[in-house]
Amino acid sequence: MRDLSGIVKAYDIRGLVGDELDAELAREVGAAFTRLVGGPAVVVGHDMRDSSPELAAAFSEGVTGQGIDVVHIGLASTDMLYFASGHLDLPGAMFTASHNPPQYNGIKLCRAGAAPVGQDSGLSEIKELVGHGVPEFLGAQGAVTERDMLGEYASFLRGLVDLTSTRPLKIVVDAGNGMAGHTVPSVFEGLPFEVVDMYFELDGTFPNHEANPLEPANLVDLQAKVREVGADVGLAFDGDADRCFVIDAAGDPVSPSAITALVAARELAKEPGASVIHNLITSKAVPEIVSEHGGKPVRTRVGHSFIKQTMAETGAIFGGEHSAHYYFRDFWRADSGMLAALHVLAALGGQSRPLAELMSEYSRYAASGEVNSTVDDPSARMRAAADTFRNRNGARIDELDGLTVELSDGSWFNLRPSNTEPVLRLNVEAPDAGAMAALRDEVLAVVRE
Question: What is the pLDDT of residue 71?
């Protein structure tokens, strides 16, 4: 019996190639996924990791072995796979481990129309099916057809953002040897951009730096290049190119919360009164700006399954997370860093100010970023933090996702446990840097006691 408990995560399947994830398991997952979602076909894509083509092919064998066809789109970013799933109205599978080191790989699954498959929406059933053995199918085998969808994907994205009046921009793009090196040239083709490319060669060994722009060390090369060439903006994508981080002309990172607010304002200009989703760790500037632009801010837990579910329930036009995941109703409620990047470029190119000045409208508070602490008992440390602040004058406490405490001076913090390790993740925001640092240090003193 296969035990998948170590590699079935909240939103995908991910593990060490060979030890935890191999072709045989990929084949079994393909068969189980097909049993879960049915036909007529499944669309399959993969990233540039050395192990990805073999795993994708084995998964496809599992699908066709159940009598269901496969549409193989080959090299793809994760949002390109979502596009294929939505455009073709087929369930999909993307082989990638995103920003993880080269020895890892994984499978992101979705139902037709890019609807998410997570622990509570299919992964648990797949784990059980694989664990007990997928029933043999005795009918005719399915067929595999290949379809290049890069051009259709690029054209679709450009159709969602008006770039007709954009001034020429110089852009540095760091693909991190990931899938943006495959997608950016097609998406930006014909646009008034001078692109200075960095690490566009597809290489799943990540020879230059990890393809994880969330870590400041992985932005250093991009920041230096932006300053060196006098670029208007820098873009950094993660390994599967579903997240995009933005750097201004001075080389300073732009907060994903500010990007969320900017895109929300642009989307609300097209549909006044619409709902916009933000998770509880995004800056409180986001709901403020959404309201100021006539929208309805809706707060959710962290995680794409919660965002997408709430978008479906509310009909929200857009959603953003602190981690640089951006979700669009017009993109089947799926996330696309590339689409968010096009919005930033359209906003920047549609006026004459530099990016830092433009984004100052959307940045109102001082934030700590995520501060992680390894602790023996996360639950006990969270209770201690709650007890410390419970009787603080004017403090409001909620437990929608971990512990969130809002103070009377406008400061707030959120403390969340990791799903996979004994770690507490702290995010703090305050009206100014001094207040933020004081609150951060006070909470950390309790957490690390």
Answer: 98
Mean pLDDT of 367-374: 94
Predicted structure pTM score = 0.95
2-16, 98-112, 349-363: least confidently modelled range: 2-16
- Of 98, 121, 275, 368, the catalytic one is 98
Q: Which residues pair with 235 in a beta bridge?
A: 173, 246
Top-tier CATH class for 152-253? alpha beta
DSSP string, 289-326: HHHHTT-EEEEE-SSHHHHHHHHHHHT-SEEE-TTS-E
CATH fold for domain 256-362: Alpha-D-Glucose-1,6-Bisphosphate; Chain A, domain 3 (3.40.120)
Which residues fall within 8 angstroms of residue 17, CB to CB, at 6 or more apart? 51, 55, 103, 104, 105
Question: Is 436 in contact with 381 (CB distance < 8 Å)?
Answer: no
Residues of the chain with CATH 3.40.120.10: 13-148, 152-253, 256-362
Q: Which regions of 185-295 does DSSP assign to beta strands (E)?
A: 193-198, 233-237, 244-247, 253-254, 275-279
State the pLDDT confidence band at 1, using cuts at 50, 70 and 90.
low
Query: Which amino acid, 144?
Result: V
Convert the pLDDT of each residue in 310-341 to its tens digit.
Answer: 999 999 999 999 999 999 999 999 999 999 99
Measured CA angle at 318 (ends 259, 286), to 5 deg: 45
The tens digit of pLDDT for each residue in 43-91 reads 999 999 999 999 999 999 999 999 999 999 999 999 999 999 999 999 9
* CATH 3.30.310.50 segments of the chain: 366-447
Q: Is 411 considered catalytic here?
A: no
